[in-house]
Task: inverse folding
């Protein structure tokens, strides 16, 4: 018997893959779910007697700053938590350590952690088919192992890789282009952009001083009108494609 009745899923997922991973882990618990989507949820909450599954994408080896700030407002009461960072097949730097540390600071009892791999949201050619069937199988095994661990009442400290102090945040300054011929002015991008970088009266333009290149507007556009652009973007893409592109496996820590 599991020692709680609810699973709360907390995620920041501009291109949707982190949410998919968290959903996959949560589903085996067969309990009621509550969702906290940190792209729009910016409030304080105290969690108590439930399992919390937290999924964060990796931005430049760290947690995205906005996601970290919003997650910092969520506190546990020795609440059981699973820490998941999801990266685009290049590397996850110190993001998993950052997430586990933050959860512990906020009084969560971290019972398991994972680094998972999904399509790179800036450079879609990298890890383009992830998560695949093998990944899904591994995620299911992980959640079955979590259930067994919780049912047995076993406790142990979780150790993950990473180094402190964490690196500074990176400002990519990529342009975001919107094709006027494709845009249907539905304004979905305006209403969902977490930093309000796109204005209602001119969705073609993106305020690059506010934009943090999270990729949400590009991914939610039903007309595929939006894309990254500019010299910086194509130079970084070329660099990224020269990295070690060998398959990285998901890693699990219990
Ligand atoms: C600004 C930015 C920086 C990123 N940095 C990294 C990185 O350091 N390593 C990596 O492998 N993937 C990196 N990625 C890719 C994302 O971590 C990856 O695509 C993740 O699956 C996105 O999750 P989402 O689908 O929930 O948005 C980055 C993506 C963005 C937008």
Result:
């Amino acid at each position: 018997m599991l020692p709680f009745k609810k699973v709360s899923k907390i995620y920041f997922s501009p291109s949707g893959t982190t949410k998919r991973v968290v959903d996959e882990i949560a589903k085996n618990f067969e309990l009621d779910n509550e969702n906290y989507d940190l792209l729009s949820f910016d409030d304080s909450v105290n969690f108590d007697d439930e399992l919390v599954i937290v999924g964060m994408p990796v931005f430049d080896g760290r947690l995205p700053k906005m996601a970290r700030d919003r997650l910092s407002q969520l506190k546990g009461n020795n609440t059981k938590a699973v820490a998941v960072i999801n990266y685009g097949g290049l590397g996850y730097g110190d993001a998993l350590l950052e997430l586990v540390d933050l959860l512990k600071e906020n009084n969560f009892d971290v019972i398991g952690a994972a680094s998972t791999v999904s399509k790179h949201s800036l450079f879609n050619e990298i890890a383009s088919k992830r998560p695949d069937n093998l990944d899904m199988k591994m995620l299911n095994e992980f959640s079955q192992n979590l259930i067994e661990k919780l049912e047995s009442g076993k406790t142990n400290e979780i150790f993950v890789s990473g180094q402190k102090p964490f690196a500074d945040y990176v400002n990519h300054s990529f342009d975001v282009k919107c094709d006027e011929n494709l845009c249907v002015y539905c304004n979905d991008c305006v209403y969902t952009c977490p930093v309000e970088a796109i204005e209602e009266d001119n969705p073609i333009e993106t305020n690059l001083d506010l934009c943090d290149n999270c990729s949400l507007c590009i991914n939610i556009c039903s007309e595929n009108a939006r894309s990254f652009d500019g010299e910086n973007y194509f130079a970084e893409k070329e660099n990224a494609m020269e990295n070690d592109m060998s398959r990285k496996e998901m890693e699990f820590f219990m």
Observations:
- DSSP finds seven helices and ten strands in the chain.
- The chain has a mean pLDDT of 97.
- The helical segments are 17-27, 65-71, 95-105, 133-152, 188-192, 216-220, 231-241.
- Strands lie at 6-11, 32-37, 45-46, 51-57, 74-75, 79-87, 108-117, 175-178, 226-229, 251-253.
